[in-house]
Amino acid sequence: MALARLPFTLSLAWAAYTSATPPNPPPRPAELRVELDYSLKEVNLRAALARASLVLPALIEIIIVLSDLSSISPQPQRSNHLQVPEPLTNPHTASSHIYLTPSFLAFWTIAMTGAHLRKRCFTTMGAMFTFELAVRRDHKLITRGPYAVVRHPAYTTAVVVMGAGALCWSGPGAWPFAYAFDFERVSGDGSGTGTAAAAALLAWIALAACWVPTVWNAVALPGRARVEDKLLHEKFGKEWEVWAERVPCRFIPGIY
């Protein structure tokens, strides 16, 4: 049922927003390690797209459900039986295509776990965690917590949150999936075909908005991690080498 899904939708939006929001102000210009101005713009753009890609579909879903609820007419008769509002069960209303599924709950759990671990990365790094590539004046090499497992856990968790979130919106029970892949059932008897077609276009845009930033980050972050390793090696020397020997994997323990 659509109402039962809303708490999960809200928490998924929270996970995406907090994961893609910088925990600290930008570093001072002297601390930045970028060669071209567009690199900073790219970082900010990827973060903004990451937030919007999962937050906007959640807001649209909430609007769909609340709009259908607002169309419920008062029921004068009293009943001892629990009744589900008709707009949420009518097969030709938008809310009837929004419901919980085992796959959604599985991907939601992965996204929330990723968000929690990413927040731990923020906390562990403290003031040194910035979205911009920088080496602080008083920078310290962090090797505890998540950084004792892999060298770049925040990058891994960012892709996990975005990928799992995108999968949440790409399966049955999600409005983008219903309008993008189940157009005939959503449009019903054809009387609302024009509206359904517009909704289908919006659904495809929403799906693209979910997956484009996810793929972009998955492709861009390994290159950034290599540059970051090089900078840290230059600054900390032997200390970094000892850490890299103890923690050889950048993203996935024992694999990569």
What's a concise summary of this model?
The chain has 256 residues and is mainly alpha-helical. It has helices at 2-19, 37-70, 102-125, 153-169, 175-181, 183-187, 193-236, 238-246.
The stretches of 5 or more residues where confidence is low (pLDDT under 50) are: 81-91
Overall pLDDT confidence: 85
Sheet having the most strands:
none
The coarse silhouette is: elongated
Estimate percent helicity.
55-70%
Number of strands: 0
State which percent range the strand residues make up: under 5%
**In terms of structural class, how would the helical and strand content be classed?**
mainly alpha
Q: Give the oligomer, counting copies of the same chain as homo and different chains as hetero.
A: single chain
**Order of helical and strand elements:** HHHHHHHH
Distance from first to last alpha carbon? 40 Å
Radius of gyration: 22 Å
The number of helical elements comes to 8
Enzyme class: transferase
Catalytic activity: [protein]-C-terminal S-[(2E,6E)-farnesyl]-L-cysteine + S-adenosyl-L-methionine = [protein]-C-terminal S-[(2E,6E)-farnesyl]-L-cysteine methyl ester + S-adenosyl-L-homocysteine
Signal peptide: 1-20
EC number: 2.1.1.100
